[in-house]
Design brief:
The complex is a heterodimer of chains A (590) and B (293). Chain A has 590 residues and is of the alpha/beta class. In chain A, 34% of the residues lie in helices and 26% in strands. Chain B has 293 residues and is mainly α. Chain B has a single domain, classed as MetI-like fold (Orthogonal Bundle). The chains are: A alpha/beta (590), B mainly alpha (293).
Amino acid sequence: MDPKPVISVRDLSISFGRITVVHDLNFDIAPGSTLAVVGESGSGKSVTSLAIMRLLPDRIGRAKGSISLEGRELLTLPESEMRNVRGGRVSMIFQEPMTSLNPVQRIGDQLAEVIRIHRGLTGEKLKEAVLEMLRKVRIPDPEARMRQYPHTFSGGMRQRVMIAMALACDPVLIIADEPTTALDVTVQAQTLALLKDLQRETGTAVLFITHDMGVVAEVADHVLVMRRGREIESGPVHEVFSNPRDPYTRSLIEAAPSLVGKLTADTVPARPVEGVPVSFSGDEQVLEVTDLSVQFPVHSGFFNRLTGMVHAVDNVSFAIGKGETLGLVGESGSGKSTIGKAIINLAPIHAGEVTVSGRRVDYDDPRSLAKMRRDVQMIFQDPFGSLDSRQTIGSAIIEPMVVHGLARGAEALEKMEWLMERVGLDPARSTSLPHEFSGGQRQRICIARALAMSPKLIIADEAVSALDVTIKGQIIDLMIDLQKEFQVSYLFISHDMAAVERICDRVAVMYFGQIVEIGQREDVIGRPGHDYTQRLLSAIPITHPEQRRTRPALPLDASAPRSPIKPLDYRAPSPQWSVAGADHFIRRAG
Amino acid sequence: MTDTASAPLAANVRQSGLRSFFGRLNASTWIGLIIVLVLVAMAIFAPQLATHNPARQNIMDQLTTPGAQYLLGSDQFGRDIWSRLLYGARYSLTIGFFAILVAMIVGTLIGMIAGYLGGRIDIVLMQVMDVVLAFPALILGLALVAMLGATLTNIIIAIAFTATPAFARIARAGVIAQRDREYVQACQAMGFSGPRILFRHITPAILPEVMVMSSLWMATAVRTEASLAFIGLGLAPPTPTWGGMVRDGFDNILSAFHLALIPSLAILVLVLAFNLIGDGLRDAIDPRLKDAS
């Protein structure tokens, strides 16, 4: 019953110079099974995979211990034989399907190259093998698709091509390094299902590197939890999920969104309504957006004439009450970030109105703009990029106060120190530069900077998406605490359902530039009315391997990326709404 | 902004480690720095170091070879070459430094404005720069000096004019790279004015590249000045300039080659020193740029 493991790692330690980044790692992977290595950034999981491929940087990276693949010791294998192992016996799938394909080479040619090198096929046979691989990864119409370039493929389709390349030479082991992290959840679900199917067909062992416990619950047979280069816990997936021994593992499992079981059985019948759903909770309205459209011009041709418009946002309306959090969810390209940017004048508003605390914002009037900019603050996704790397953080927090004339001199200094304390930072560090802080601390700095203006509304654009799971929880807690204290409202833009579920009072779902559903969190997540919301929610990874069988398979979305570029005379249809229950609006088709 | 407001701000805004920056400079950069410092010292202390009046002619001692009385010999008018070299260093360094300072300020400003505003302003400004760049520096300098007259200020203006496009280009590229970074968007979102974002937040980010460019172009400026002097458009005689000395020495190249050789070597050493500094700065700054991103 116990087959010989494909790969067996014993006492693996990896060091860069004098720093050891991985300590005494042990694991085996049996044929046809999947080991998920879970950990935060910097936990050593990717380095381990590089060590297996012997791709550690020369001279500085050193691996000790033993890595044995089908009985062969990889660490001492000569480089010439190692090249056969790479791609031949072990292949890799990377995180970024957009950059791991060569954009100027046809898909078929890229795949053919791999097959030719490792299997030595040529001519008709090679073409046949390419087609077979494309069929295997369920790419529709492979004869036509193999002659196309990567940019005509969506992210999910590209990742399928990457999987085809990885499988092309019948490897015994596939190392998948965060293969679905860059994909939207619906595409992620399809890609994971495909990987599992293929694994069942070919009996390949998979080393699956991820930070997402939901993905682990979906695919893994065994789990290895890593933290700071050490194994924290390992075991069969059911055991780890049911009885996590380590508190860290437990916190990872709890951080996953637990939507399954939240779906309420009783549906409220929807009835058509007139008008736009600008409801809000609380007694005072802070933000109202009516019929907002954002379009970017497309110029082309020799004379650079205007030939079309990118419809990023079409006829979007919503409102936020005082102290309320509205979540704006949707996949990449759905226009959710553009809405946030349009409100603070970072994207061109084509039509529609924005009203901040009862006053309509006139985007041509500097005084009206300045007022809006005091009331509305923004927190960005990348805490590394949104701070000036040459400005001390104290100065970064003070500067907006000085610019807007809210405080100056000693008063501003005092307020800065008070704010730093409020967000859990030591005021003594105000003279440090951003790079001396961790990602979570930098996001705290950004929050303090936003709060310095005593805003009424904070737009958080994927504010916690780049953070590790445990840090993410802390930042969300901080945001909730600060909301209670300052009565500030949030527009929480995110694709991360777990975060949205924790912080938001109401949720709006975006799809191709339009809101398709908006309502109380319990309503939208519990009894989704729109097709797309249902699809989105059912694609969210499960939280326990027990739930694997209860999930219906998602239909494959094989269409080429849908273009938001519309001809000049295109007018987006006015949305028609249905209402189901209190303030739960669902967009009607058509 | 008032003084009371800027005081804590200024105290908080600090550049990171100057000491570690100097630690990263390699040996050849130090050689370049030392050469330039020695030459600057020679120029400053020219009156003390000179053995003769650089302009005084001594008909009795024409074309002497280097020796005790004339350290590096004398020229066809009997003027002491060592003393002329010292005073010439003043003009070469002054012109090189100020021409590039002017070019750096004007060019960087043009490039930053073009890069930040974009659109039509960008197109117009950069195309003007391209036209200037299309002329060979020497021809352009020649035309300007011929038009304005060969005074110190005019030579500085002429050379600055030829060097401006290089700075405009590098500043524009730097600004465009920074403009779409999230921290700039964050500044815009907080309602900071364009000039504030440009000069307070973007300028420090592009300054290192501009500084590298400056030291490399100082070498070019020294060379252009020498070339202008060589073709007779330098400062009027008897003012000692290195390019002018080469020109004077050229007449007697067969009988006394050291007349042309010595100032040529001086130009070579100075240009080399500036180039060494520029290359070294670039190497020292590159890893820092990687850290920052």
